[in-house]
Give the backbone structure.
Amino acid sequence: MAWLETVLGSFFPRANFSILDITRFGEAYGLASKIYRIRFMAPAPLPSVVVKLWHTDSNAGDREAYFFNTFGKTAAARIPHCYYAAIDPETDRGVLILADLAPYAQGDDLLSLSLEKSIPQPTGKLFLQLIWHHLWNGLASFWMKTNCGNN
């Protein structure tokens, strides 16, 4: 996996990323992607990363790569840092390399987490979801008013 070491090496020069193991997870979530946790042997600067692969001609499309290219470089509110996001239009494939947020589980944290895990967890995601919802509704409303003549 020289490509992975090349990508991570741009963030961590002179670091050694010897792979300890690769585990697939998240089969119950998502539309058409394969998600892997890649753990590294010490003394790597990161214990692990998450690699997500998918076909962009599926329902998943290419939106997630654009999202992480936009917001993943300055991650906050439990958005994992994005080390790499790309779409190959010739093969209709997408790839993300993200910081691993383990031990947090994928899915709707507000519904599926146990009480002890849910108390510190939902505030950041809920806040981000609320901001995104209001931002999207505000932009959609503004666009409709300015482009459709509904003043």
